[in-house]
């Protein structure tokens, strides 16, 4: 009898160990998705990895294998910006294999289709919900109490990577890249630096980091705040107002040097208040469902503030607007049958929102320029790209901070082509740093120009000219 009790105790401990291991890292294959006919035409997995045992921080991810040669194709970790915007944003609206059928919602589940424009055709991609509280990632600490910021987010993303590769050692030899856009401009170089340090220190597992790429990246508070020159170049403000703002602000638009500067910035903001800041050529649909508060010195919408996200079923954009796709995503991911198909853990996340403003996030990094210098001089190639019709992080500002690196030009400024048409312009500097524009694209470049962007990415990761 004693032996039986001992055996039962050992079995109990074993089961407990398995449960803990299961909660620490789980991954399941997604074979079908509601709204898409038949089995998935690509290989996708979803899972959770615990990155903080104390607060039970579990980061959720979507992993899509390359449809070509996953055993040797590039592996990319894609970090969506925000901060606190779900990796599903990149999967369904930018570089992934899924898109929503653009139909007016009729009470049934939104439909999906298999996108012909996808990076996953020739690369494996991990789409991460980071930090905790983003998408389907969760913590045992409530959002009102949970605090995070740039450094904690990157630290936990690194823990995620180490654990993910421990469970996927077959990908250790694949060329590995870290990428993202928007506020990913902070995450990407910081995480790439942490990975590079781990490689130098012999941290296990040693990753095959081959470079990184970021688009319209939040980088430096001075160079990112170049909206006034952008609006002038686009003829949105006249010469007089531009000169007055330039003089009173002393060429710095990240701070208000004088009262006159602040007054002129108010004038600029009023002039462009009906312009879509993410892509200045597209409809500005914000006023249709979210009336703008009156401008004032005390309560003013910043030139650097992102457009409002469609995060609630009570804010329905017109079907002609890009935000309608976000609304369809909101409806789809808040369906129980979809959550079951994606293997979402029960009672972990209530309402899914694309970008979670409720996350208590502190932006701690004011400039990542030194991180870029550190990485590129250590031999890690970088592609910095910019949709040239984005006013949130204007192209001239991005190219401006690149020039401060004082790298010699290796391949002079030239157009690059997609199907014999100019798709943008590019220049290559020493230390394998490439800067490229994507013509007529907005803030999240692949969302606006997926074919051109994906072609650019694949040429670059394979060290081919584009």
List the helices and strands and how they pair.
Elements: H1 2-24, E1 25-30, E2 44-52, E3 57-64, E4 75-79, H2 88-93, E5 98-100, E6 112-114, E7 124-128, E8 147-149, H3 150-167, E9 176-181, H4 184-201, E10 209-215, H5 221-224, H6 227-233, H7 239-249, H8 259-271, H9 286-289, H10 323-333, H11 336-341, E11 360-362, H12 369-377, E12 382-387, H13 395-403, E13 409-418, E14 421-429, E15 433-438, H14 445-448, H15 450-461
Helix pairs in contact: 3-4, 4-12, 7-8
Give your account of this protein's structure.
With 466 residues, the chain is an alpha/beta fold. The protein folds into 2 domains: 22-221 and 364-461, 3-Layer(aba) Sandwich (Rossmann fold), CATH 3.40.50.1820; 226-289, no CATH class. It has 15 helices and 15 strands. It has helices at 2-24, 88-93, 150-167, 184-201, 221-224, 227-233, 239-249, 259-271, 286-289, 323-333, 336-341, 369-377, 395-403, 445-448, 450-461; strands spanning 25-30, 44-52, 57-64, 75-79, 98-100, 112-114, 124-128, 147-149, 176-181, 209-215, 360-362, 382-387, 409-418, 421-429, 433-438. The strands form 3 sheets. It has an 11-stranded mixed sheet with strand order 1-2-3-7-4-9-10-12-15-14-13, sandwiched between helices. The longest helix has 23 residues, at 2-24. The N and C termini lie far apart (74 Å).
